[in-house]
Here is the input.
Amino acid sequence: MPELPEVETIRRGLERVLIGQNIRQIKVHETRFRQPVNIAKLRKLVAGQRIAALHRRAKYLLCELENRAHLVIHLGMSGRLLYCQKTLPLQKHDHIQFVFNNGHELRFCDPRRFGMVDAVPPGGLPDYFHLQNLGPEPLSPPFNAAYLAARAQKLSRPIKNFLMDGAVVVGVGNIYASESLFRAGIHPKKPSGKLNSLEWKKLARAVRTTLKLAIAKGGTTFNDFHNSDGEMGYFQQELMVYDRAGEPCRVCRHKIHRVVQAGRSSFYCPRCQKV
Here is the structure.
């Protein structure tokens, strides 16, 4: 699943080519996604509009239009956005096309159809259902050690699960939670309420460092993630623990361990991340 660095990489790539473009036509070939596509709403709010800005909230891409409405896109498990010439032959899972005046188009491809494409009317974004009850952005000033410590008071919940809770902080998915905890030297099973002030400072710093590095590398390529130009991300070459069970730790050479937490694999070094 594309996580925050992958979505931010896509946003930055699309921002270079979409700002100022006019969406001349919308072609919908499939409506059955996790939220059915409302074709009439897309054509009413989005078609014919110029793209004014491109934002991101959590893993949602927010395309701000000239009429102040927003085109909202979530990539789900396997979604992709491809900016290409409109003459490029359609592929099997190219479900939605946003056609521009310059001979190019933006294609939404989603083999598993867990993604989402929606439109929000002007002024409706603050009350939009999918953006409610979200925690702060991990690269924003509100995300800091004091905030994390306050949210975790007296919690016995494992720190890995706490860190992946979108109500606590958005966009820190499985890969980047494991990597951040390694950089902070914190065991993924440690109860959240047991971290001390120094550990919270290390963790907040590690999350920011990990995500910034991942964005700089264009995200992590597992399975089929590509950016808006069809290029792969390269952060997987920087991974310290994730998906490296049985391999030597890059710091101490001890074998990396894997444990399942809430149905997700956690990877850690038992020597660098002691309980």
In short: Residues 79 and 146 are 35 Å apart (CA to CA).
